[in-house]
Amino acid sequence: MSDKMNVAKIFGENVFNDKVMQERLPKKVYKELRKTIDEGKELNPMVADVVAEAMKNWAVEKGATHFTHIFQPLTGVTAEKHDAFITAPREDGTVLMEFSGKELIKGEPDASSFPSGGLRATFEARGYTAWDCTSPAYVREDAGGAILCIPTAFCSYTGEALDQKTPLLRSMEAINEQSLRLLRLFGNTTSKKVTPSVGPEQEYFLVDKQKYLQREDLIFTGRTLFGAMPPKGQELDDHYFGTIRQRIASYMKDVNEELWKLGISAKTQHNEVAPAQHELAPIYAEANIAVDHNQLVMKTLKKVACQHGLQCLLHEKPFAGVNGSGKHNNWSITTDDGINLLDPGKTPHENIQFLLVLTCILKAVDEHADLLREAAADPGNDHRLGANEAPPAIISVFLGEQLEDVLEQLISTGTATHSKAGGVLHTGVKRLPDFAKDATDRNRTSPFAFTGNKFEFRMVGSRDSIAGPNVVLNTIVADAFAQACDVLEKADDFDLAVHDLIKKYATEHQRIVFNGNGYSDEWVAEAERRGLPNIKSMVEAIPCLKSEKAINLFGKYGVFSKAELESRVEIKYENYAKAINIEAKTMIDMASKQIIPAVVGYTKTLADTILSVKEAGASADVQVELLQEVSELLAETKAALKKLTEVTEKAAEAGDMEAEANYFHATVIPAMDELRTPVDKLEVLVDKKVWPMPAYSELLFEV
Ligand code: ADP
Ligand code: MG
Q1: Res 2 pLDDT > 70
Q2: Ligand number nearest to the C-alpha of 268
Q3: Distance, CA 444 to ligand 1 centroid (Å)?
């Protein structure tokens, strides 16, 4: 790779983007395709043929040999099957490179083994991938050569969604429609389309690959299942925003280059709070593209890490005792002519449209806090949420001083008459410029924070797809808009009606607003007084998806049918049960094959030492004491291992998937904790040279 990067030149060079389409497609075809992309007009098959041909030629020029329909089944990762462009050999033995419109539009992966949650029995195993022309195709280069990747949705034979993208696109249509309704009421006749924009900030850890390979837990589960805290953790706050080490800097440079080529605008990078933890944020994009890009970001972080002798850990909690990783989902809604509905302007109290949008969002978040919480649930995030380093498991909204004050005025007097200004920040140093402050400070402890012209949903797990949270956000806000429009469209006096509605929503949903410290115990108690749900784990979060409320909501906007929701519930329980089962089995394996043998070996060394010390006529009291201590912990370990083995084996008897997931949560996880405790104590006592795996100190500080 070149030392001097020409970013403007490489940016998007592997993307079949608008510029390439304009260059390579006949004008008429280009215009038709744009209509499908921009206005959702149905695609003409003739257009698809022409686009496919152009796409293939472009990709082949870039060295592509295969194409793939890339999709996002409910496994948490993307899936793909590669098809070569070659046709059957002709009579003279040569082949052609072909790619038809039909192949572009539709694929049929042999997909019976993707999770369907009972939506599809194996005997009716057809599943289709459908081209999503709103997310550009691209050429991916890796060890397997260059491949044309076509983003697709994935549905069953009967049209039920088996993926992340289908409901996301449906929810985007819902919010588009309801936002336009709302805008029209305010006299906007020009905006044609409203799109949610998303900017996900991705956190991750980097560890040395060789050390990673010596840890079964990291390999099989993505997190350490054992490990004593090193003498130094993150208490000095010296890693956050610290100077990026050369090895990491060189890694980040390569990551950026790969992402830029794929048209992903990786923008900021820095060291995060925990040692070995980092963050990457792209510039925000349309929700659908942002979701696809985030998958590519995660893949690229992993791929480039391998090239640098590193391993990228995307798990939410790779190390106990230091901060875990999340993904801040920045979300706003914007019209095609550039109006951000979440922009309060300088004087929000006068911005009636904004106040309606804002109070609708408060209503949405308050009424569907359970769905938002569920959208951020995954097995790894159970270790983070509510653990004083990540947002609490309780959903609340941070508005900041300015908006909270406007809301107070609305509630107490019925009208807001003024907005607090930010004022000027004086540093007290003449040579430093004084600058205008934002009207609002930040609050890092809030799960759902207003940050200037967007909301930041901070609960999402680092490994999770951001599709789920955005499906929920789009749908609940679309529904709040719809309800407001139902009232306002019938009103005789619009101004009066909108005024009353804002006051009503603000009053009814004020309980969801919290500007204080979300990590404090007082907040937990206060939230309970306010009647806000505090959903502590994934298994407790899942059931809300099959509630009457959720079925009605998602059904109304065609985002999920009842059957689709039920299938997702099933899949989530299954994913949870499988994840914990793998963790438990990995612990059992490590404890019985690595840790116990190492400790037994160490007790022998101690016993031998005691003998020879005694033979030499000296006192071996200290060695005896150590041997006793180690032996006691060894016995504790052995007992805990036995118990964990027993309870894990019994999981299959728990009953249906829901019962099994709950069993893992309530019975297996505590048994895992019981095994970890004596092992972590042993790690501190036993000779480092015989400990069978790299310690936290090596993983976190020797990158
Ligand atoms: P911070 O949270 O540290 O202030 P930034 O301002 O850099 O971070 O923004 C974080 C993420 O939010 C970035 O991905 C950025 O592109 C995205 N973002 C900024 N404005 C918007 C917006 N209006 N809608 C959605 N995302 C946005
Ligand atoms: Mg942020």
Answers
A1: no
A2: 1
A3: 14
Q: Which residues line ligand 1 (CB under 6 A)?
A: 197-199, 201, 268, 281-284, 330-332, 340, 451, 453-454
Where does the pLDDT of residue 189 fall: very low under 50, low under 70, confident under 90, or very high at 90 and above?
A: very high
Given the CA of residue 282, which atom of ligand 1 is nearest to it?
Answer: 14
User: 44 C-alpha to center of ligand 2: Å?
Assistant: 41
Tokens of 396: 């609340």
Identify which has the larger pLDDT, 344 or 426: 344
Mean of pLDDT values over 501-524:
94
For the record, the structure tokens of 685 come out as 């006592």
Nearest ligand to residue 328 Cα: 2
Q: Give the integer Cα–Cα distance in Å for 533 and 524.
A: 10
**Residue nearest atom 4 in ligand 1 by C-alpha distance:** 451
Crossing angle between the packed helical segments 494-508 and 467-488, to the nearest 10 degrees: 130
Contact of 662 with 650, CB cutoff 8 Å? no
DSSP-H helix ranges across 40-133:
45-61, 101-105
Distance CA 522, CA 275 (A): 30
pLDDT digits (tens, 9 = 90+) for 570-595: 999 999 999 999 999 999 999 999 99
State which ligand 1 atom lies nearest to the alpha carbon of 281.
Answer: 14
Query: Where on the phi/psi map is residue 241: left (φ > 0), alpha (ψ -120 to 50), or beta?
Result: left
The model's pTM is 0.95
In order, the DSSP letters of 196-244 are EEEEEEEEEEEEEHHHHTT-HHHHHHSS-SS-PPPS--STT--STTPPP
Dist. CA 291 → ligand 1 center (Å):
15
Bridge-based pairing of strands 448-450 and 455-457 is: antiparallel
Buried b / exposed e across 509-522, counting CB within 10 Å, b at 16+?
Answer: bbbbbbbeebbeee
